[in-house]
C-alpha cells in the first residue's frame, strides 16, 4: 500500500479527528480510573506484608486475612524452627483495641500488632534504632502509626490516653498505614498485648518465619506443609499478599463494582470508535466503491478500516494514559494517600491491549458496510 | 417565530442507522452515569438496610459504639431501667457478632454477621422470621439471609454446616442484604442458641452471654413524644449508653460512612468523567451532522433566517437526542442494577429522584455539546459556501 489511505482518511477532517481522539482518550481514562481504584484497594489491603521481616508465614486455617485472624498454638512455630534453613521464628499477636482520643474522649478502633521486643519482626526504619527495644519493653507503652486518621488525636511521643481501662503512653512513631481494615495501627510488646487483651501468649495470630540467606522460601514452605499438622496453613509472602488482596476484592463487592465499571467503559469506547468509523465510511462510500470497481479486493478495504481503528486506538491511548497519570496523582493527594493509586507497567500494557481490542471490535462491526459496497449500486 | 417544519427532528431521523448509533452513544453515557451514581448510593444505602429493620422508636447503644462496625456492648440492665420510664412500652435486646461460617459446598470459611434476639420480641420488622419461630426454638438452628453473597454456598432449609466451628442446621431463610459490617451475609438465631454458639469460645475470642447487649431497641407507647423521651433517658441513665431516635441513629450511621470513607470522592469523580464522555459523544454526533448540512444551513442563512434560529435547531436536536438516548440508557441501567444486586447483595435502588437527577444531567450534557457544535453553524458564511 503506497498511499497511507487510512491515515489520510482520518486526518482529512482535523477537528473531527480531535473529537474522536478525545472520545477514545476518555474511554481509556475511565478504564484506567476503575482499575486504579481497584488496584489501590488491593494494594492498601496487603501493603503491610512488605514491612514484615519474614519469607514464610503461618496462620490458622480459620484466618481470612490479617485483620480477622484466629489463633493457633505457638508450638507450631517452634516445630518450624527445627527445620534446617530457618533462621528465626517470631510470633505476631494481633487484636483490635479501642483507642480513646485524649482530646475529644471519643474511642475508635485501632489495630494492634504485638511482638517480642527482641524480635526484628518489622522492617520499619524505627526498628534500626536500638533504643526502640527499650521503649517497647516499657509497660503500657505503644508505638503509634503516623498514617493514622486525625480522629485519633495527637500522635506525639509522650501522649497518654486510655485503652481497655489502662493508661497507655505513646513511646514512639512509625509509618505503616492500616489499609482496609484499620484507620489506625499501634505496635507494642507481647507483654503489653497480654495486659491489654488478656489473651494468653501461647496462642499466636500469625507466625513469621525468617529464613537463612539464600534459602528457597517455596521449598521450606512445601516442607513445612508436610511436617506440620493441619491446624496451621503455611504461606510464602507472595501467597500471603495474594490471599489478602483476593479476600478484599472478592468477598467485598469492590471487585465486582470496578469490574463492571471497566466493562461499561469499554462498551462506551466501542460505541465511540464505531461512530467515528461509521461516519467516515458512509462519507467515503463512493470512494470505496470506486476503489472496488478499480479492482481492489474487499481485503484491501478491510485493511484500511482496521488500520484506521488501530491508529485511533494508539493516538487516543496516549492522552488517556497521560491524563490518567495526572488524575492518579490528584486522587492520591486528595485522599491524603488513603487510596495509593499509581500507574504500573503491567496495567499500562493491559489497558493498551484492551484499547486496541476495543477499536478492532468497532472496526469489525463497521467494516461490513465497506466490504459489501456494490459499485453498481452507487453508479 | 413559529417553526412549521420540525427541522431538528428531520435532521435527526434522516439517516436511521446513524441515529441508532448516536442514540447508543448517548445511552451508554447515561448508563455510565447511572451505574457510578448507583454504586455510590448502594454503598451508602446498604449500610442502613439492617438499621431500617429495627422495630424501635429509640435505639440504645454503648457510648463508644460510634458505628455498627465497633463491637462494643452495654449492660442489659440499662434496658430494664429504660423500660421503667413512662412512655416506654417495650425494650428488646438485640445481639450481634461476627462468626465464621463454613460454606457447606466448598468447606471454606466466610465471615457472617450473626443476629440474635428473644423470639418472643418482635425486634425486627421482617415478618418472615416469625413464621419460623417454632423451628428456631430448637437448639443449634438458624436462618440464613438469602441475599447473602454466593460464597456462603447452599442455604436451603435442612442444610447442615458450621457456625463458629459448631454444627448448625438451617431451618429457613429471610431477606436482609449485606453491608460493610456483615461480611458475606447474615445468620439469624434465637438468643438461646446465641449463647450455645458463643458462650464457650477459645481464649483468644470474646465470649458472649445475654447480659451484654449490642443494640437496645425501645418501643414507645402510642402518642409519646420520642424526642422528649430520648432527652429524658439520656439525662437519667448512666453515661455509658447513648440514646437516639431511630431516625437519628440511621442518620448517624450514614454520616459515619460518608465522613470516613472515600466512597463519595471515588464515585463522584467517575460520574463527572462519565458526564464528560457523554458531552464528547453528543458533540461528535452533532458536529458530523452540522458539517454535513453545512450548505443547507448556509442556504437558510442566505434566505434570512437568523443565527438564533439555527441555534434553536441544533439545541433542539441535542435535546431530542438526550431524551431518546435516556430511555434505553435507563432500562439498561435498570438491568445492570438488578444484576449487581443479585451478584453482590448490595442494595441497588433506582428511585424517581435519582432517575430525574440523571435525566437532568443528560440534558445539560446535550445542551453543552449542542452549544459548542452550533458555533460552526453560526460562523457559516453563505458567500463562502456558494463560492466554491
Query: What is the number of strand segments of chain B?
Result: 11
Give the strand line-up of the largest sheet of chain B: 6-7-5-8-4-3-10-1-11
Largest interface: A-B, 59 and 60 residues
Helix content of chain B: 40-55%
Please give the alpha-carbon distance between the first and last residues of chain B: 32 Å
Description:
The complex is a heterodimer of chains A (about 375) and B (about 400). Chain A is of the alpha+beta class and about 375 residues long. Chain A is about 50% helix and about 15% strand. Chain A has helices spanning about 5-10, 15-45, 75-80, 130-135, 190-195, 215-225, 235-250, 255-285, 285-295, 300-335, 345-370, 375-379; strands at about 55-60, 70-75, 85-100, 105-115, 140-145, 160-165, 165-175, 185-190, 205, 205-210, 235. The longest helix of chain A is centred in the last third of the chain and has 37 residues, at about 300-335. Chain B has about 400 residues and is an alpha+beta fold. Chain B has 13 helices and 11 strands. In chain B, strands 6-7-5-8-4-3-10-1-11 form a 9-stranded mixed beta sheet. A two-stranded antiparallel ribbon of chain B has the order 2-9. The interface between A and B is large, with 59 and 60 residues.
